[in-house]
Amino acid sequence: MKKPPRKFDILTDSTEAAGALSGQRLNIAIVGHVDHGKSTLVGRLLHDTNSLPDGKVEAIQKMCERRGMAFEWAFVMDAFQAERDQAITIDAAHIWFSTEKRNYVIVDAPGHREFVKNMVSGAASCSAALLVVDAGEGVCEQSRRHAYFLHLLGITRIIIAVNKMDAVGFNEARFGVVEVDIRGYLAELGITPSHVVPVSARDGDNIAICTDRCDWYGGPTITEALDTIPLPQADSTAPLRMPVQDVYHFDDRRIVAGRIESGSLKVGDELLFSPSNKRARLRYIESWPDNDRRSSAAAGQSVGLQLDEQIFVERGEVVSHIITPPLESNVFRGHLFWLGREPLTPGKQYKLKLGTFEERVTVQSIDRVIDIDDLSMTEAGASENVIERNGVGEVVLRSRAMLALDEFTTNQRTGRFVLVDGYDIAGGGIISMRGYPDQRQLITGKSSNLTAVNYGISGSARQQRNGHRGGVVWFTGLSGSGKTTIALEVEKQLFQNGYQVYVLDGDNLRGGLNANLSFSPEDRAENIRRVGEVAVLFADAGFIVLTAFISPYRSDRVRAREAAEMKTNGAFHEVYVKASLAVCEGRDPKGLYRKARAGDILEFTGVSAPYEAPEEQELVIDTDSQTVEQSVSALVDYIEKNFSTSDN
Amino acid sequence: MNNLTDHIQTLESQSIYIIREAYNRLERLGMLWSLGKDSNVMLWLCRKAFYGHVPFPVVHVDTEKKFAEMYEFREHYAKEWGLNLVTGLCPPIEEMDSTLPPAARAAARKTEGLKSLLAREGYTGVFAGIRRDEEATRAKERVFSPRGESGQWHFRDQPPEFWDQFKTDFPPGTHVRIHPLLHWSEIDVWLYTKRENIPTVPLYFARDGKRYRSLGDEDITSPIVSEAVSIDEIIAELQVTTEAERAGRAMDHEAEDSFERLRADGYM
To answer: In terms of domains, do B21 and B84 share one?
Structure first.
């Protein structure tokens, strides 16, 4: 049989010709199931590319004779006594070799399940990965686990070495089975492998030398496949992100230090610091030892900035340009891997490291636990869910402070985070804001030069005339939980009892004041912000305002509370109208759940968007177990008790 | 920017990032200055990170067996650069583990000298200029590498380290070694030394057909055959050599595991 023509691209980027001289190198992670032959492949790769020091192979052969063992290429890799004893690689080691094109560092990541943290530590610094799969055994648990972790680490360039082809007689059909299997798994992660190469590491087939033992294969050898991978580039064209690392004042200069993670900046730029939202212009970019201050700097560079104003900024803030700021939120979704000794548990607090920012976060929920073997997901909700060591899943994390962050799909370097449990780095993940709004626009005032009017009629005068205080009774709960029904009935009874009372609900605000808002997370948040502000005005006018909105986000309700309490202490009362999703869906008074389940309504609370139940509400009305009459009566009692200032 | 400067620039920025992280997160820092080419680069990177300042002591663990040129170098530049130089002496060889081979036993003095200096000064973080490409056990190091109370390295159970998020939380009694040059190669060190014009002990350059590639104690360090009298010639020589950098350091080679034992016990 005639060998097919070899078809693959080798990049001929002339600028890389200086690679060998410059020491420029590409980091490649080698991963795979235990005993699939990683160490053998690396030993062979070093030998076949003439990268071993003189006498190394002879020394190992001698050592083998002395110990009465057969020579194996894997021994090249075994630097540690302990490794030779246990015959497993303990930690990620770094191995240097060169092809004619350029230099490489192979980061050898252990296959053994116990050492996933070392695999992560090694692979995270790599631009590409070589996944070794045994042709006979096929894709195994660790093959899949490693591929999944590579995906979470953001490594999408993967070369598959189907090893031990000699043991299956270089059978094309067997290779095909393994290839289809691994390609199928990677496709579900959104990864297309660069190449799938049949090799025998032991015999040196298709490592650096093209073999004639599999005529049916027309692709590259391992070294040729590696040479097709482009060098990593820092992204200077993306929006500017520079986490502040420190602020130095060793002398009369005040220098803001950090590394530019993406984008670029130049002297004269107006810079925004998030989440403090302070601004200043860039005056100088410092340099040493020369004094010729640079006028610009770009992604990948560690810099020191002097600003034109002495604003107080500190470690953890993110520098950007004004028009392309990071998102702001105190809640986000993390798709994470867990390395902690103790499982990741809902309700538990961890230290979040986000760039240079550190803050306590609480695991609000574990939404999915993912089975790496078949990628099946356990949809959570069940609070007994945990993510075990070496497991992966999707969680919602919440902090007290506002965070400046990006989604991983927008910016890999600022869209990832680490969790610390006690003293230990216990997990890492990538950020998604699916279902959660950017809170930046809600907290950024756009008007200035405002002066508040001093009212001629005081709050106490209004109170005296009405016989009760003004305030906000804020209902929150799922659609169908009974908010509007109860609010309207409460309004009626209070009105009859002589109260100044008014109901704000979705339909009377969405039609007018909020007619320009959609149901996106940002617009929902803005909707609630406006409701909150309108409610404060009514309360200030002496009314008891009943608001009947789902208001699913805790952060929005906190903001409404703060707006009300800023005017009058104790003016805000949160009422959780509590009903299970099943009950609400059974009631479905407006037919919305049916539409949501059919996919006609996107991002419907409780179905396809989150509902964050209150934690510090003043009152719970459980409409699963109470009738409307009981609920109304409880609320009327509560309001009369808390708002009335008359004696009876 | 061409590829060469790009590559060196990336290494420099990464090292500065590491040095600044350590300075921000750790309380009492010291920088080990062995006077060799690597620690000179590390010191230079510090001055770059802090714009001419070295905001912590520079520590020389002195075996009193270094080359005269090294002591001259130390005195000269400690003064010129305004360094806060702290030196610590090493105990006599008779007090070292007698089961170690002779050169490793001599090198163990430095481990003990370092330990007593750490105890005396109470450092919680110490910068060391080791590189992954030097030697196989160093290849397994972390950038932030925690040590137990007596300085041992638990290489079997190292913390995870990824995305430049380093381990900076420790129980009391731990100290951490910080390795800002871990990702550099020997050639990178020389390229950078040349680019920045960093002063170097003259022993690295050939005299009478020999030069030192790695500097240690005079009695256990051997020169290599070389005609390289400039950095360019050293780089050219390194590109074709298949000799290991530390081949002239006797303690690495006495037994299969002697250097590993040294490092597990706290050697740099």
So the answer is: yes
